[in-house]
Amino acid sequence: MATLRLGDVVPDFEAVTTEGPIKFHEWLGDSWGILFSHPKNFTPVCTTELGQASHLKPEFDARGVKLLGLSVDAIDNHPAWVGDIKDATGATLNFPLIADSDRKVSDLYDLIHPNANDTLTVRSVFIIGPDKKLKLSLTYPASTGRNFAEILRVVDSLQLTAKHSVATPVDWKNGDDVIIVPSLSDDAAKEKFPGGWTTVKPYLRVVRQPGA
Ligand code: BEZ
């Protein structure tokens, strides 16, 4: 297992999931993707996360992002947990969940951190672009549930900055003003942003979000 860094093509794999076997790269196709790990089935924090991710699936769909969860339990263990997720959160799991009982994917993506726990995975999130390259990774401990609104916010930033010569400032939300990337000269910026911008510092030029 090599360290996975931003910009790397993410490792491909075959896995058993609640929606049948998948070949990861083929399953991604030309879409954006999010792979996120869960320490174990029938655990409380994971249950809330999978419910919330399912509630938010229409938002991910609208952005062309496919969701793929992972848990290290065996596939015959998943359906009862899916039932519990429905009972506890009201959400029917609506994306595939990998049963990584042989830890193949967990090893490929370095999801077991033995100094934290040698059997449970950490809570990682990998956002993958249509080019299969890693755009973001984050890792939380098992005891802290992730914030899926933040994950959507990052997707918005990544999709915007992939298309336009902008970056997004602190606490940015879709529709807020953005920053013109420093590598774009003022002359080049005039062509891309004919409506003009505000120069706070020569390296900090604030402009209306393109398309907003
Ligand atoms: C949980 O998902 O609730 C959890 C899993 C492992 C350790 C602590 C909490």
Description of the molecule:
Helix content is 30%, strand content 24%. It is α+β, with helices and mostly antiparallel strands. Strands 5-4-3-6-7 form a 5-stranded mixed beta sheet. The chain has a 4-stranded antiparallel beta sheet with strand order 8-9-11-10, covered by helices on one side. Strand 4, helix 4 and strand 5 form a beta-alpha-beta unit. The structure holds benzoic acid. The site of benzoic acid has 9 residues, from helix 2.
Write a short abstract of this structure.
The protein has 212 residues and is α+β, with helices and mostly antiparallel strands. It contains seven helices and eleven strands. The structure holds benzoic acid.
Q: Compute the average pLDDT.
A: 96
**What is the H/E order?**
EEHEHHEHEHEEHEEHEE
Supply the helix-strand structural class.
Answer: alpha+beta
* Secondary structure tally: strands: 11
Low-pLDDT segments, ≥5 res:
none
Gyration radius (Cα, Å) is 19 Å
Family: Belongs to the peroxiredoxin family. AhpC/Prx1 subfamily.
EC number: 1.11.1.-
Keywords: Antioxidant, Oxidoreductase, Peroxidase, Redox-active center
GO molecular function: peroxidase activity
